[in-house]
Amino acid sequence: MSEPKAPTPAPGDTYKGWLFKWTNYIKGYQRRWFVLSNGLLSYYRTQAEMGHTCRGTINLATANIAVEDSCNFVISNGGTQTYHLKASSEVERQRWITALELAKAKAFRMQAESDDSGDESTPPAAGQGGGARNSEVQSTLRTLGSKVEDLSTCNDLIAKHGSALQRSLSELEGVRLGGETSEKIRQVTERATLFRITSNAMINACRDFLALAQAHSKRWQKALQAEREQRVRLEETLEQLAKQHNHLERAFRGATVLPPSQSNPAIDSKGSVPGKGDASDEDEENEFFDACEDVQEFITVPADPKYHRSGSNVSGISSEMGMDDGTTSLDEQSMASNPESPQSQEVVPVRKRRTRIPDKPNYSLNLWSIMKNCIGKELSKIPMPVNFNEPLSMLQRLSEDLEYYELLDRGAKCQSSLEQMCYVAAFTVSSYSTTVHRTGKPFNPLLGETFELDRLQESGYRSLCEQVSHHPPAAAHHAISERGWTLRQEIALASKFRGKYLSIMPLGSIHCIFEKSNNHYTWKKVTTTVHNIIVGKLWIDQSGEIDIVNHRTGDRCHLKFAPYSYFSRDVARKVTGVVTDKDGKAHYVLSGTWDEKMECSRVMQSSRGGENGADGRQKTVYQTLKAKELWRKTPLPEGAENMYYFSTLALTLNEPEEGVAPTDSRKRPDQRLMEQGRWEEANAEKQRLEEKQRTARREREREANRSANPEEAEEVEIATEPSETTDKSGHQDSYKAMWFDRCVDPMTGEPTHIYRGGYWETKEQGNWDSCPDIF
């Protein structure tokens, strides 16, 4: 038998050659030039077409390879692509099968490694070094691992062909000399040839692996030695820096006078140390004083000692906040002067709330397989299974803004509107603290769905949310407290999927009114961004600016949520702000992070000076007293990572309660099934509710548009999420909210929904006959 002329396929090499491909019943098999490279099998009519025209490509990572007979084989990726191929001989077919199996194994590994390596897009921790060297080592290790897998694949093929050869030899021994002899000898010869081809492939793989290992052995030894030496040098440097830091700290404490115009960043940060021996204080100060470099650039320095001694009111505001060094903290003073505060009296809860929900099931689903066809679309128009949800509705997420209601309780007791503004600002930031790990999508509420949060006896407030609009989806929220404040808002979400990330832009204003002072505050929410949609670990960032306005006094607070940047030296999730009066004079500087805490410092004097900002302007230098803590996030409950990272409040939101409206989110069946871990049933129930809502929507449109074209009235855009359909004529939904009236906001001039009353009275009567049947 003559030697085969085609090259022996080596693991990982590009393999090319002629094959016959089935086209149709008229032309049958046609000769095509096939190229196997990087896990992809492509074909061309001629070799000349390789530079410009590819007739088809199939990814081997998900493909199935099947042998039909001695020369024919089939490659299919599950139905969309199927190649029926024929080689010129059995030996040639086996060469291709060997090359395809090796390429498929490698493509599958590369795909798995790509999925696993996605976490590299997660915000890196500070202090990473040697990135290039680590990348090189990781690349080499992956290459070596690939070669080992090639050897394993070749080993399997050798075992397979060896067994076939052994069977042929056994059959040859039992054959008598005669007509069958030549046929059996031919089979044995072909089996031996196939065995030799596979053996040569394994020998080539072994040779590549050995050469690669030898080439990098010495380099690894040198790199290891260099790393050890660098570690020793770093330890010595760290010890020297610690000694210098201790010396500078003692020298600073011994200083008696600090020039008011001092703008040295190191001195600035030392001047505002909260006075506690926390090892993280220095980092927190750096986070504070580098704030607002793009919009309102400023530097803070310790106030002149005369302000500490005399307590004189240089900034022109009242001293009731107690921001002097020797006074109690802001929270302590407020609580001590108000015996009605929840912290100063023992409250017995009406009922014991639950502290756990069933653990989240470990169901795997590829987000990109669903999102890749939705780039550029509104989030509300993207069909989503419950696998990407969390067992709470958007109404319940909106009610979570009240997680730290105590900040408004304290603000209601403030005598100064500027002090009150600090608490309102801290409350605004605190509403984002629950989102840091919450990558699950809340359920879109059905039109007319409600959610009540009655904490009157425990916490002194009641809250009601209702889905008031179908297109665009919008929810109205109203909360009132016995402790002197009211919160109301209407939020609609504008969202876009950008491929790598998802942007969610809340629309609408939030109002907070304090009864005692009649101060009326308004503000808007910032943009939420979900990163690593395609690959990697999902993570959430908040970015943008918030202007809180007191419409009675003209006071303002400008907050800036700094977006995450890989190149920034600042702490992640940083928030900074300045509280000013109606004349633009600064009275407080705010600092912190939206996932941990907020602090404020009283401004004693301000001036232009210091280093220039990003736009060339001079930064404002604020002389401040020591920072006082306004708010700190409550730690998540134990096991929160298995319960969707819910906070203590969030765990209770979907707890069944008696007497709530039949439209309450707690009674939503698909959401309840998901919480119980029955996701398949939840998906089926979700589809039923969506179809029921579409039917109700079409019925309302028929009633509202009897005089219009019936076809136009019935045309709707099919969606697969609640609150997501819209007619093509652009008509607004004729639905009228149950508990909220649509009007123009007198403060902002925006159309909004304001609570008309009656819900809690209806609950006391237990008469829900007027509520729609939405579940």
Automatic annotation (TrEMBL):
Domain PH: start-end pairs: 12-105
GO cellular component entries: membrane
Localization annotation: Membrane
Protein name: Oxysterol-binding protein
Basic and acidic residues bias locations: 664-705
Coiled coil: 217-251
InterPro entries in alphabetical order: OSBP_sf (IPR037239), Oxysterol-bd (IPR000648), Oxysterol-bd_CS (IPR018494), PH-like_dom_sf (IPR011993), PH_domain (IPR001849)
Sorted UniProt keywords: Coiled coil, Lipid transport, Lipid-binding, Membrane, Phosphoprotein, Transport
Cited SMART domains: PH
A molecular function GO annotation: sterol binding
Topology within the bilayer: Peripheral membrane protein
Chief place of localization: membrane
UniProt cross-references to Pfam families, sorted A to Z: Oxysterol_BP, PH
Lineage, uppermost ranks: Eukaryota, Metazoa, Chordata, Craniata, Vertebrata
PROSITE patterns: OSBP, PH_DOMAIN
Span list, region Disordered: 111-142, 257-285, 304-351, 656-732
Any GO BP: lipid transport
Biased composition (Polar residues): 326-346
CDD domains (alphabetical): PH_OSBP_ORP4 (cd13284)
Organism (species): Danio rerio (Zebrafish)
